[in-house]
Design a protein that fits this description.
The protein has 201 residues and is α/β, with parallel strands linked by helices.
Length: 201
């Protein structure tokens, strides 16, 4: 299974709430990630949500291809920030050596684990040589060792650090940086997260 339709359906219905209630500040890892890129780099954002991160990238002078798998989120991103977002699921990414970077904040975590290898292959293929990729994931714990639905009904893959490192290594990425931190998701559950910055050789 490459994607979960129920999760997409959830975001279709919830898009107005997320656009209003989600903080407008950019993600804390965005500027450190962008600081690694050359001026004017071309960035693909997958899972752009309400468009806040894409808007900040544009303000910093980057070229941005903002995408989301949910039509309602794409509409809200364009209404709120005018980022020219378009609809695309992870399994629909067909670009080859097109982007300098791929930003994936809190979105790949909604793929079934079985769909992660294909998504990482597509991200790797879409990057130019030397291109960078950021993603962050909620991690498994003793209470939730397996993937499944969160309290909001969204699919969450809940990998462990070893699995993530293995998946990115198998996809031929070079690990540059990792960060472990506690985070409170929109479902109200505090979990440990892992953020990764990787490079395509």
């Amino acid at each position: 299974m490459r994607f979960d339709q129920e999760t997409i359906d959830y975001y279709e219905e919830a898009a107005p709430r997320y656009t209003i209630s989600t903080a407008l500040d950019r993600h804390r890892d965005l500027d450190p990630f962008l600081d690694r890129l050359p001026d004017g780099a071309y960035v693909l954002e997958v899972g752009c949500g309400n468009g806040r991160d894409a808007s900040h990238m544009l303000e910093r002078g980057f070229r941005v291809d903002a995408t989301d798998g949910t039509a309602a989120m794409v509409r809200k991103a364009n209404q709120a920030f005018g980022v020219n977002a378009r609809q695309m699921r992870f399994d629909q990414l067909e670009a080859e050596a097109e982007y300098d970077a791929v930003w994936a904040h809190a979105c790949l975590l909604h793929l079934p684990r079985s769909g992660l290898p294909d998504a990482l292959f597509r991200i790797h293929r879409a990057l130019k040589s030397g291109g960078l990729h950021f993603a962050n994931f909620k991690l498994r714990d003793e209470a939730h060792p397996e993937e499944g639905r969160d309290p909001l009904g969204r699919w969450t893959n809940l990998p462990g650090p070893d699995l993530l490192h293995s998946l990115y290594t198998d996809a031929n990425f070079t690990l540059l940086d990792t960060q472990h931190y506690p985070g409170n998701g929109s479902d109200g559950v505090v979990r440990n997260w892992l953020a990764l910055t990787v490079r395509k050789p």
